[in-house]
């Protein structure tokens, strides 16, 4: 099973310290933790580890000491000083062995490779492809059945042969992981997860095997990935290997509707996953299909194709747009708000924009334009006044989340493969910059002047924002030349640290009216402009 990127990074970091916590100096510990350590036999000034996990959203500390019988124990303490657990060397293994025995009690595997669970019908799955964003990066998973590969596990007195799937994970188009996952279905329809062999990649080379585990070798407890008849509140463990490799699942909904680039799926089972590093993910399983959406804590990933021909695949990810942007532009002076989109590629002949609520827009090139292919595209929506359409109403129409541009490549009449891009659309809107000089309708020197504006630090709702730059635009207040695109003027992008710019005399004409605006650009790409006018002497 593919490690989500954030988890993979966490595991890589943990490996450098042999999965140990990070030692903390005594003075760095919360006072409540210090008190609990001392109250349970520890000494003031001892080293305590900060563990790479959380309990109920709280940081976890472990202190190693001896009990009254001389045995080595670990105190597991949350940041508020609560003693969550006292571990001995044998405790964790014994508990895991007991859980494994309970899960396997009375279980029979008559035909384990025939996986027909309606929410995870792996026997009828050839290739699923999911794409989206994780931790701000483009993420793609290709999940391919490997029916000719076999791996067996001894479970009790049974030798269980598994169905093998290969997961290939890409980050920004680069292969980062290949995992072989081993599944089996019992006679009641529960799908078991019996391990994975993982190869981590960097620059095309294998650099590690983090996250690998096998039932019977690394753990006495098999994983369960889908119950035979999932019901709300039902719980299982998909991975029960160690403190670093573990996942507890709970069914939280059984009638979800999920819209993806591959289609709209109803009556989906939503499963909450509590991971070993303290983060939470959600997966959505559609009847007759399997996983159609994965929601890591820092992204969103959707099914884009189901049961594609593996021969066409997978080794060749979809062509990516060179540039893809979907942003909000707010006018703080005129009090109106709209949407802007910008795309750039080598060529395409049709395109869909798919959001959380399904297809939002569709473009098609017809006639000669369609045959040649289109490359760049920029458009703006209508910008209704905020008094006519409130911003919160706009947000309801166009929700924040992951949006996918999906189309077909077309260059000089030659059709190519799938072309796509995934972007995150945000509802964070920065305040408009205060225009300091020129003031409204000021008379300035035609020999040049310094335009200036105030620094933006907050959103229109008053929350802190991270401004990545400003755009300064100055244009003559005259009709554009009919043969030119745009008006006479200048436009420049400036660093976030810049709040003034010298306007040269070579640009200015005497006795001429100019319109000017400054746009504050948030890290999400959303931007807000303030505008004004001035005249030269």
Describe this structure in words.
The model is unreliable at 2-20 (pLDDT under 50). The strands form six sheets. Strands 6, 7, 10, 11, 12, 13, 14, 15, 16, 17, 18, 19, 20 and 21 form a 14-stranded antiparallel beta sheet that branches. A hairpin with a 4-residue loop joins strand 4 and strand 5 (83-87). The N and C termini lie far apart (70 Å). The chain has 537 residues and is mainly beta. The chain contains five helices and 37 strands.
- Work out the helix count: 5
SS strand fraction: over 45%
Largest sheet entry: 14 strands, antiparallel
Radius of gyration: 29 Å
Instruction: Choose one word for the global shape.
Output: globular
Helix share bin: under 10%
Average residue-wise pLDDT: 87
Structural class: mainly beta
Low-confidence stretches: 2-20
Distance between the termini: 70 Å
Total number of strands: 37
């Amino acid at each position: 099973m593919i490690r989500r990127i954030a988890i993979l990074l966490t595991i890589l970091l943990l490996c450098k310290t042999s999965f140990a916590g990070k030692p903390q100096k005594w003075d760095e510990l919360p006072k409540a933790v210090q008190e609990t350590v001392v109250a349970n036999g520890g000494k003031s000034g001892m080293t305590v580890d900060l563990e790479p996990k959380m309990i109920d959203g709280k940081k976890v500390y472990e202190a190693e000491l001896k009990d009254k019988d001389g045995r080595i124990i670990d105190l597991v303490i949350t940041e508020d000083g609560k003693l969550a657990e006292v571990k001995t060397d044998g405790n964790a293994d014994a508990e895991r062995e007991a859980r494994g025995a309970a899960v396997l009690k009375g279980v029979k595997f008559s035909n384990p490779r025939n996986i027909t669970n309606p929410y995870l019908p792996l026997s009828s799955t050839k290739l699923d492809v999911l794409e989206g964003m994780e931790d701000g990066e483009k993420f793609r998973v290709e999940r391919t059945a490997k029916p000719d590969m076999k791996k067996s596990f001894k479970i009790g007195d049974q030798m269980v042969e598994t169905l093998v799937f290969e997961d290939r994970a890409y980050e920004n188009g680069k292969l980062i992981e290949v995992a072989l996952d081993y599944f089996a279905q019992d006679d009641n329809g529960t799908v078991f997860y019996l391990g994975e062999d993982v190869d981590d990649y960097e620059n095309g080379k294998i650099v590690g095997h983090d996250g690998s585990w096998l039932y019977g070798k690394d753990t006495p407890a098999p994983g369960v990935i889908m119950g035979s008849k999932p019901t709300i509140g039902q719980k299982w463990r998909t991975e029960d290997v160690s403190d670093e490799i573990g996942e507890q699942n709970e069914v939280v909904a059984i009638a979800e509707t999920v819209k993806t680039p591959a289609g709209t799926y109803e009556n989906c089972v939503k499963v909450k996953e509590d991971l070993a590093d303290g983060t939470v993910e959600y997966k959505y399983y559609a009847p007759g299909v399997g996983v159609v959406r994965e929601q890591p804590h820092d992204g969103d990933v959707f099914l884009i194709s189901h049961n594609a021909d593996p021969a066409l695949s997978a080794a060749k990810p979809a062509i990516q747009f060179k540039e893809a942007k979907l942003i909000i532009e707010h006018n703080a002076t005129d009090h109106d708000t709209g949407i802007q989109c910008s795309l750039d590629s080598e060529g395409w002949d049709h395109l869909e924009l798919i959001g959380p609520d399904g297809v939002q827009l569709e473009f098609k090139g017809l006639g000669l334009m369609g045959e040649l292919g289109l490359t760049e595209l920029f458009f703006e929506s209508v910008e209704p006044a905020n008094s006519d359409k409130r911003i919160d109403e706009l947000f309801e129409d166009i929700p924040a989340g992951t949006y996918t541009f999906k189309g077909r490549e077309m260059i000089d009449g030659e059709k190519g493969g799938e072309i796509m891009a995934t972007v995150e659309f945000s509802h964070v809107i920065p305040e408009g910059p205060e225009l300091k000089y020129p003031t409204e309708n000021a008379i300035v020197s035609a020999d040049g002047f310094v335009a200036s504006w105030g620094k933006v630090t907050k959103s229109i709702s008053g929350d802190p924002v991270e401004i990545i730059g400003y755009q300064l635009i100055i244009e003559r207040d005259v009709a554009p030349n009919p043969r030119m695109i745009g008006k006479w003027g200048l436009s420049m992008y400036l660093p976030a640290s810049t709040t003034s710019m010298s306007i040269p005399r070579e640009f200015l004409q005497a006795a001429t009216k100019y319109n000017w605006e400054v746009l504050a650009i948030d890290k999400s790409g959303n931007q807000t402009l303030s505008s004004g006018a001035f005249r030269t002497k």
